[in-house]
C-alpha cells in the first residue's frame, strides 16, 4: 500500500507541474499574440504615413489620378489591418478556449489523483488496523 500512496503523490505532483506549465504556455501565447497585434498596427501606421506623404506630394504636383490611387492603397491597407486584427482576435479566442479546456482537464485529473491518494491512505489505515 505504501508504494501506491507514493505513486499517487508523484502523480499529483506531476498534475500540478502540468497545470503550472499550462499557465506559463497560456501567458506566452497571449504575449505573442499581443506583440503580433502591435506589429500589425505599427506596420499599417507606417504604410499609411508613407502613403499620406506620397499623396500630399502628388497633390502638390496636381496629379489627381495618382493621388486617388494612393487613397485606394490607403483603404486597402486599412482593410488588411482590420482583417489582421480580426484574425488575431479569433486566434486569441481559440487559444483561450483551448487553454480553459486543458486547464479543466488537468484540474479534474488532479482531483481524481487526490481522491485516489485519499483512498490509498484509507486502505493503508484499514490494513494496519486489520493486520
From TrEMBL:
GO molecular-function term, one example from the UniProt record: microtubule binding
InterPro entries assigned: CEP350/CC187
Residues in coiled coil: 74-108
GO CC terms in record: centrosome
UniProt entry keywords in alphabetical sequence: Coiled coil
GO terms under biological process: microtubule anchoring
Protein name: Centrosome-associated protein 350
Amino acid at each position: 500500500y505504501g508504494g501506491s500512496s507514493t505513486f499517487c503523490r508523484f502523480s499529483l505532483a506531476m498534475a500540478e507541474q502540468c497545470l503550472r506549465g499550462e499557465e506559463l504556455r497560456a501567458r506566452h501565447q497571449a504575449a505573442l499574440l499581443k506583440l503580433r497585434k502591435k506589429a500589425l498596427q505599427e506596420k499599417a501606421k507606417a504604410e499609411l504615413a508613407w502613403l499620406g506623404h506620397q499623396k500630399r506630394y502628388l497633390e502638390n504636383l496636381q496629379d489627381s489620378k495618382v493621388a486617388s490611387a494612393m487613397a485606394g492603397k490607403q483603404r486597402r491597407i486599412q482593410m488588411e489591418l482590420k482583417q489582421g486584427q480580426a484574425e488575431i482576435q479569433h486566434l486569441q479566442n481559440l487559444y483561450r478556449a483551448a487553454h480553459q479546456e486543458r486547464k479543466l482537464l488537468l484540474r479534474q485529473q488532479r482531483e481524481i489523483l487526490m481522491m485516489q491518494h485519499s483512498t490509498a491512505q484509507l486502505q493503508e489505515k484499514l490494513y494496519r488496523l486489520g493486520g
